[in-house]
Amino acid sequence: MLINKIALIAPNRDFALQASDLFNEWGEKIHVAVASGEDVIAIAQQLSERGIDALICYAAFAETIKTTVNIPTVCLCPDIFDILQSLQNITVWLAKTGRLADAVLGLTGEAIHGDIAAVADILGCKTKILSGSRETAPAEVTAVVIATARIADNREVEPEYTAAGIPCFSVTIGHETVSKSVRQAQELLRAGHVDRVRLEQFKAIMEFTGEGIVAVDSQRQIVYLNHTAEKLLKKSKDQMVGCLAVTVFPDINLDDTLRYGQTRTVSLTDGGEQGFTCRIVPMLISGQAVGAVITIVEVSLLKERDKAGKALVESGYTANYTFDDYITVNAFMQEMLEAAKSYACVDSTILIHGDTGTGKEIIAQSIHNYSQRSRSPFVAVNCAALPESLLESELFGYECGAFTGARKNGKKGLFEQADKGTIFLDEIGEISPGTQSRLLRVLQQREIMRIGGDRVIAVDVSIIAATHRDLTELMEKGLFRRDLYHRLNILQLRLLPLADRPEDIPLLSHSISKKYAAKLLKQPLHFNAGAMGVLTRYPWPGNVRELEGVIERLMILKKDAVVTAEDVKKVLDRSCDCRGNGVRVVPQGTLAEIEHAVIMQVLKETGSHEQTAKILGISTTTIWRKLRSFQNEIIDFKMQ
Ligand SMILES: Nc1ncnc2c1ncn2[C@@H]1O[C@H](COP(=O)(O)OP(=O)(O)OP(=O)(O)O)[C@@H](O)[C@H]1O
């Protein structure tokens, strides 16, 4: 294998030596080979097999190589500056010797091209292409110009003479021209590398997908197919690549796709029970079809997918958000999104840390939808919302007769329901020590045991946990198991509070306003500079959820669409003061007692956890969590 990735094919030994000297002088590691006209293809092929990725090739060979060997090739011949310099020297000499008037230049040599005649014309000389060698130049020729396969700077001024005494000058390939060709070849190498990486990525995706994929070029020839296509069509790549598509798919007419760029769907049978659905999609460049891609799916698989999709929707265990829904221009958060995308490609447990309303659930749903598990259930569990015993039976299920009130046939737990999908354990910091140890077993072994059961059930789930609490602090206080923490904290995502990323507020405000405008059939709000100033300075303890609440209130209260600083202040005041007329009387006591009293008061006023959460600018989860810590009161409290 050659280390050098670029090679030069020289037309003779002298040329090769001249090029090698230059490459050595420049410290360029370029392999140099010599070819005659006949063996040039064989030599180029050998170089390709030995790992050469780009060729620099003397002009006379370039076309042959470009059409026969699949290596990017740079053509090396005297360029316009070589010609200009050389002809300028010649005309100076002709003027000096009194021969310039009506001079005719006879052009010969293998590297002759149209540019020489054009430049001579500009310099005031007529030209004549000589059919033979310089020695046969006719008498009307004032001087002969020979374009040779030679590397030299075009500075020669003194000519050689033919036997008939006609002066002869050379146009050669200048050093700068060689250097330029090296740079071009290096550029091709770089571009080729990028293309190869893309091609490999593309192939990996193609091989990974469950559908059969066949690519056809504009001549209707099969140029690529993936492994699934081989399996479905029961033929190997070798048997199909290079064949006309019609020989493999006699029932598919590619005309509509290749001529008019239309996408078509066709059902095929294979003569037996199995059937395929093929979709034919054009490959378009600047609106022109340059080929087509045929995707093949077994009909039975489609039916299964339909059924599975329907069952998933009916179960309600679906994730609606994708990363596109998560609005942020903050650099840290954008990095977090990139990390989340890469985490979605693996099955390791993810721990999301962020204050209430920062979007932990959106991120969890987006990870699920970005992952291979997106067609399977996404089960979200709020660990703070259920008392310990109920949480355990919900998570792990139970066998028949496990406890009084249990269903006769037992019940699948959420881990089982999430099989092949993702389980999102929100507010993981709130779970009791008993549930923590059961959870540890699932994390370690991906197995569960139903309550009251003795069977071990394997579950294939990806686990995403979230918390607003500092789990290390809980660990130090002995409230959270250290081993569980380490099991959970394999991949971590941290969401910044809204107050730490005020640059997100304008974008979020506009997007939320658009969302509510569509819902309430109103105009989106326009926030003037004063309004935006108040919004960006506010501390947002309830984060984006609180911002949503404020914008919803503005939307309902405002008659026109323009929001001022005063409008925002009023609504923010209301959200702080809580309810209608009310100046809330702040109770006396510890912070916990004040919180408790305020939550209980608003709960009584509204009769709804959701409303209470909205008014207080916190999540329902936080309400549940706080209520759980005032357990005695919960028992007494009866919702109206
Ligand atoms: N960056 C964001 N872009 C758009 N919407 C967002 C963003 N962050 C949060 N939201 C919205 O804020 C609300 C709260 O989000 P989410 O429920 O994901 O937060 P959370 O951190 O899980 O809250 P909690 O811990 O209180 O359950 C949702 O309505 C969500 O759509």
Give an overview in words.
- By secondary structure, this protein is an alpha/beta fold.
- It has 26 helices and 25 strands.
- The protein has 6 domains: 71 residues, Rossmann fold (3-Layer(aba) Sandwich); 94 residues, no CATH class; 94 residues, 2-Layer Sandwich (Beta-Lactamase); 172 residues, P-loop containing nucleotide triphosphate hydrolases (Rossmann fold, 3-Layer(aba) Sandwich); 80 residues, Orthogonal Bundle (Helicase, Ruva Protein, domain 3), CATH 1.10.8.60; 46 residues, Arc Repressor Mutant, subunit A (Orthogonal Bundle), CATH 1.10.10.
- The termini are far apart.
- The C terminus is likely disordered.
- The site of adenosine-5'-triphosphate (ATP) has 21 residues, from helix 13, helix 21 and helix 25.
- The site of adenosine-5'-triphosphate has 21 residues, from helix 13, helix 21 and helix 25.
- This is Transcriptional regulatory protein ZraR.
- It comes from Sporomusa sphaeroides DSM 2875.
- Keywords: ATP-binding, Nucleotide-binding, Transcription, Transcription regulation.
- InterPro entries: AAA+_ATPase (IPR003593), AAA_lid_NorR (IPR058031), Homeodomain-like_sf (IPR009057), HTH_Fis (IPR002197), P-loop_NTPase (IPR027417), PAS (IPR000014), PAS-like_dom_sf (IPR035965), PAS_fold (IPR013767).
